Amino acid sequence: MIMDARMRLDARMLEADQRHAPMFVISVAAELADMHPQTLRQYDRIGLVTPRRQGGRHRRYSPYNIEQLRQIQQFSQEGVSLEGIRRILELQNRVEVLEETVDVLRHELRESERHSTKPRIFAVGPHGDVVTVARGRRPRANTQALVLWEPAPRRR
User: Fold this and answer.
1) For 9, 42, 98, 142, which has the most beta carbons within 10 A of its beta carbon?
2) SS3 labels along the chain
3) C-alpha to C-alpha distances, 126 to 94, 119, 129, 134, nearest whole angstrom
4) What whole-number distance in Å separates Cα of residue 40 and Cα of residue 98?
């Protein structure tokens, strides 16, 4: 049964709330990651993989933790030190956070473009500042240039 769960368990395919949900006791997590439970305890002590605690003491591993354990095992087999692995995982986590931030910002930009009623025509003011010009209107005589801003083509 654990072997079937290992074949079906792919943390990247789960929803974000399921991906980080504490599900597995240490013995099951060790089996899924193909490691000894003592190795998981060691990784917890040094901060490589930090499972949630249930009832204050009992470790509960998430599918994401299992994914991390598998990565650690792969890096270790490739000769990367535990400190190197810790740094790699830290950088991967930072990249994930930044990618999520970029996705949120892209979504907000698309929404603001879709609902925007603000003019998209700008002129250079008399002091070099940028001023907006309503559609169909000419800039005041004391402006020096007119610039039409068009959003960049949307990437898919």
Assistant:
1) 9
2) CHHHHHHHCCHHHCCHHHHCCCCECHHHHHHHHCCCHHHHHHHHHHCCCCCEEECCCEEEECHHHHHHHHHHHHHHHCCCCHHHHHHHHHHHHHHHHHHHHHHHHHHHHHHHHHHCCCCCEEEECCCCCEEEECCCCCCCCCCCCEEECCCCCCCC
3) 44, 20, 7, 18
4) 28
- Please give the Cα distance from 64 to 24 (Å, whole number): 11
Query: What pLDDT, in 10s, does the model give residues 55-74?
Result: 778 899 999 999 999 999 99
> Mean of the pLDDT values across residues 96-109?
93
CA gap 55, 14 in Å, rounded: 25
pLDDT band at residue 2 under the 50/70/90 scheme = very low
